[in-house]
Backbone:
């Protein structure tokens, strides 16, 4: 079952620009995570934000969480060609191992 | 060692074959996962093992049979698959049993083609 929907589905920007991806989800959550996937490879964890947090930073990444709107955003600043990848949000509920991924955003950064 | 290793990287099999996918981690993680990912789609959870016991089966057809021989190894046995089972199969692990509350470490996946 799919919990999150991301938009846009695809995003193309120039190197140096900022990229913003949004994730909306349906039910209450304990935390929300963002992952990156290069084409045909495994996923790499980027950042985890808990339901009682509103904003989190990691290097060029900034994640916000609005639990009242059931939405999150991932901002990548000063993008690089190496940031080209698919980005997925993932949500966890309860004390389980069930991490469900959203639909993903395909980001292309043009050099 | 922060790696999850999956073998083989690519697998082509016929519908009557039996094959196995293997996954290994040496990070001392107590939960291990199988995800299936079709092209241009998000990963879909299949199975979760917690402390070597199957804790979640997402109604996966019996032609997929998971096995966790020990805390470092996870296998996925495949038998009588269908062409629609062709996908990228991803293994992941997490430190504790409540993996939804912590980050997952993923392997590079096995690209499976069923002919």
Residues:
């Amino acid at each position: 079952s799919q919990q999150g929907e991301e938009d846009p589905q695809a995003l193309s920007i120039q190197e140096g620009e900022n990229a913003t991806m949004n994730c909306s989800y349906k039910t209450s959550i304990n935390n929300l995570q963002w992952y990156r996937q290069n084409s045909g490879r495994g996923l790499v964890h980027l950042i985890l934000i808990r339901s009682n947090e509103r904003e989190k930073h990691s290097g060029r990444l900034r994640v916000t969480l609005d639990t009242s709107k059931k939405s999150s955003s991932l901002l990548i600043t000063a993008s690089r060609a190496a940031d080209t990848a698919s980005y997925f949000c993932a949500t966890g509920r309860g004390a389980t191992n069930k991490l469900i991924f959203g639909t993903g955003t395909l980001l292309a950064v043009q050099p | 060692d922060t790696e999850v290793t999956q073998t083989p990287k690519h697998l082509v099999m016929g519908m009557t074959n039996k094959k196995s996918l293997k996954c290994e981690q040496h990070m001392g993680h107590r939960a291990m996962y199988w995800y299936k990912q079709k092209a241009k789609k998000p990963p879909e959870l299949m199975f979760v093992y917690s402390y070597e016991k199957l804790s979640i089966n997402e109604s996966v057809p019996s032609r997929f049979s998971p096995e966790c021989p020990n805390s470092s190894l996870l296998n996925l046995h495949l038998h009588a698959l269908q062409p629609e089972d062709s996908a990228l199969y991803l293994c992941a692990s997490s430190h504790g049993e409540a993996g939804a509350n912590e980050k997952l470490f993923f392997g590079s996946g096995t690209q499976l083609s069923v002919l």
